[in-house]
Each structure stands twice: as structure tokens, then as C-alpha cells.
Amino acid sequence: MVKLQLLSRRAVFGMVVLSVIGLFCMSLPLAMALDSVVGIQWTSPSSGPQIAGYKVYMGTEAGMYGLPVDVGKVTTHFIPELQIGQTYFFAVTAYDAMGNESIPSNEISRKILTGSYLLTAGVYGGGQITSHDNKIACQSQPCRYIYSLDAEVTLTAHAHQGFAFYRWINWTGDSPACRAGTSCTVSMNQAQGVTAIFLSEQ
Prior knowledge:
By secondary structure, the chain is mainly β.
């Protein structure tokens, strides 16, 4: 984890924390080079002017960045289509409603390696999903976690009062492990997306 101090011409934006939260590889046809995705996250400063949003900078050389990506007020961002074997450098700036942008934060770097995938879990209706390792715990908003290649992740559906678990939907294929029951075991041999459906008992 790298501590960052973001500064503006007009005001100090405060301290944020920027860290790499993982990476995953997308399966592509054999004729194509494999790409990877890296996730970064940071903590909003606790002092300074009102932050209107953040910009993420990326490059393949330290201190040398391309055009920024305006990610709005979120503090987590996934960057797709990164070359496996390449080292990338990342920095974040904050900006206010007037468009005043801070100087870039200290940078972090990550070499993109193969061997991990993103699991996205979602809930429809009144319930929640948890994973056996407590990395996934979501109710209304989708949750994401990056797992190592071939990890076995067991998700459990928990119905809220007045609702009953109905079924799993696996958006990346019809996984036999997710066809019945409140538990769903997902093999992380590709990026996976699973939703638990809960229906009202009334």
C-alpha cells in the first residue's frame, strides 16, 4: 500500500491510499494474445475541498502517463486490456467542482502476470450472498473479488425474512455446481459471474 498526498494550486486535498487489489485474465481465442485486467483502489482524503471526482493515470514507464481516465467519485477502478508480462505504473489525482486538479499522487506499479480471474456475484430480490472465505458478501450491489486460477469458491445464498431462495444464474455458462440448492461452487478457470435469485413469499 502506498500513501499518497494530493495537492492543488488552491487547496490541499489530503491523504489517500492507493493500492493494487488484484488482476485477472480474460479467456480469448488462441490466435489472440491474452490480456489482463488490474484493479486499483484508494481512500478518499478526510480533509480539504469537496472532491468532485478522481482521474486515474497509467503508463509503462515510471512517471510517464497517457491521457487520464475520469472515474468520477468512485474509489475503485478496473483497468482492462493490459499486456501480460508488462509492468504498468499508476497514479491518481483528485479534482474539485471547479475543475482544479491535484498534482499526481505517488505512483504504484504492477507487473501483469497470468493466473487469476474476477468473480462477480450479484443478488436479485431479498437476500445476500457470502463466500466460504468471507471475500464476497453482498446484498443489493454486486461484489467482486479476484481469485487465483483454479480456486474453488463456494457461495451461499441467505434469504431475508419474507423471501425464499429461488435459483442461481451463472452468466458465464451453466455451471452444474450452481443448478440447485443454496450453495454454489464456482471453479475459477475463467472470469465468472453468478447471481442468486430470491422471491417474495407473499
